[in-house]
Amino acid sequence: MGVLEGKVAFVTGAARGQGRSHAVRLAQEGADIIAIDIAAQIDTVPYPMSTPDDLAETARQVEALDRRIFTRQADVRDKDALQAAFDAGVAELGPVDIVAANAGIAPMSLTPQYQEWTDVIAVNLTGVYHTVEVAAPSMIERGEGGAIVLTSSTAGLTGIGGNTPGGIGYTAAKHGVVGLMRAYANYLAPYSIRVNTVHPTGVNTPMVVNEFMQQFLQADPAMGQAMANALPVELVEPVDISNAIVWLVSDAARYVTGVTLPVDAGFVNKR
Amino acid sequence: MAGRVEGKVAFITGAARGQGRSHALRLAQEGADIIAVDLLEDIPGAPYHGATEADLAETVRQVEALDRRIVASKADVRDFGGLKKAVDDGVAQLGRLDIISANAGISTQMAPADELDEDMWQNMIDTNLTGVWHTVKAGLPHIKAGGRGGSIILTSSEAGIRGYGNIAHYVSAKHGVVGLMRTLAIELAPLSIRVNSIHPTQVDTDMIQNSATYDLFTGKQGSTKEEFAAASQAVIALPIPWVEPVDISNAVLWLASDEARFVTGVPLPVDGGNYLI
């Protein structure tokens, strides 16, 4: 029997990468999934973003585990659309116990433009705020507690990310997520709703493993060196982040809240 | 279904009762064999009794009831030689070492920093900081010899990441544990040996369930358990007065398991949001 049997989880950015891994890993432990993704391109993002086919593949993998999944294309920047998607998911699968605010972009390029800042703050910070805002009221009203995990980054704890509007904005947004986490952890604690952040180092996903990100990193050799992990591993796998999220949202971590949890192969500690 | 630490061996200090016993049981439930040590003596200045031989025997009984093996002995974390012998004997019998849980710790005199007795200060540092270093120093050669990596979990405290009045020796030792963890994490990363610390808030064990600790939290003499519960809950964000030993064990287990294979150098609070407030 899974450690999340009978729970419902709301996962943003669920079409591929870490988000798909979270959906599958949570489903393996017994949860049903409300999966949201933009499944479309944002102009300042140099690598190809997810597609409706990707989101359908996530649905296929969750259903193969005999769990239910509700999918909807929605942009975390659009709170009304996100609320509508959440509400439709709850109507189909029941009330949400778990939130994984995972959706994020990395608009770092060698032809920087101001709009990168605007977009990355909108998705990676405001989008996380929207995600909690659309889910938390129903969790409070239900009175059964719950667990929220916000995906930050090692760039949420250190000043990395690159000196471009997209890189600076990424670091600022991911630090901002820690502020959101701490504030929500305080406000939601009386309702036994826990809120934590995870801070991945580089993860083997299309957001990191693409020609544009590699060009961006290689353009500044000092940065490539600064990105090295302590443990002898170049990139961690999506499932490593998922395993941290499964632990954080399970009863094994029933009294863990307000915590910044790096899953970073020792990256932050070695700096 | 295979346990999450199936086939591994864990060395646990302070294993006769409280958090240490809970760690031994939780790891054994998930398939580990255990090397357990405890001081089994009263601690000068402590407002509670030390663990007994009967306590350690009970830990042994409970681990064996899970069909796991356990090698238990009396050892003092302040005495490196004795501790090393206990681990060496345990590894000789159980064949390997993968996990270290440096859990042994004490709580003693409570007074402003300039009024703490010198021997109370020294014994605290010797036990709660040097004892942790001894524990790692004694176990590490065996983990290295396995060549399979490993996981070291140092039990610090909420007092390892924030200050508290009237226990400067405890706060200093527990902060020191974080420095040791951060350094070991760097030194051992190339060998895939991970090192993390856990920071519990108040845990429901003999070490805090005593009148001196009640008074420390309430700020008045002769406080009751109910008054302590209210004062303790006031510093924890979640609506709870304290956490249970198994909550710390669940964090130890996760850090020890492959689910956390890329988690190292992390101070992990298990504190109900104590750090937030």
From TrEMBL, chain A:
InterPro entries: NAD(P)-bd_dom_sf, Sc_DH/Rdtase_CS, SDR_fam, SDR_subfam_1. Pfam families: adh_short (PF00106). The keyword Transit peptide does not apply. PROSITE patterns: ADH_SHORT (PS00061). The keyword Ribosomal protein does not apply. The lineage of its organism: Bacteria, Bacillati, Actinomycetota, Actinomycetes, Micrococcales. Keywords: NAD, Oxidoreductase. Belongs to the short-chain dehydrogenases/reductases (SDR) family. This is Mycofactocin-coupled SDR family oxidoreductase.
Automatic annotation (TrEMBL), chain B:
InterPro entries: NAD(P)-bd_dom_sf, Sc_DH/Rdtase_CS, SDR_fam, SDR_subfam_1. Keywords: NAD, Oxidoreductase. The keyword NAD applies. Pfam families: adh_short (PF00106). It comes from the Bacteria. The keyword Coiled coil does not apply. Coiled coil: none annotated. Belongs to the short-chain dehydrogenases/reductases (SDR) family. This is Mycofactocin-coupled SDR family oxidoreductase. It comes from Gryllotalpicola kribbensis. The lineage of its organism: Bacteria, Bacillati, Actinomycetota, Actinomycetes, Micrococcales.
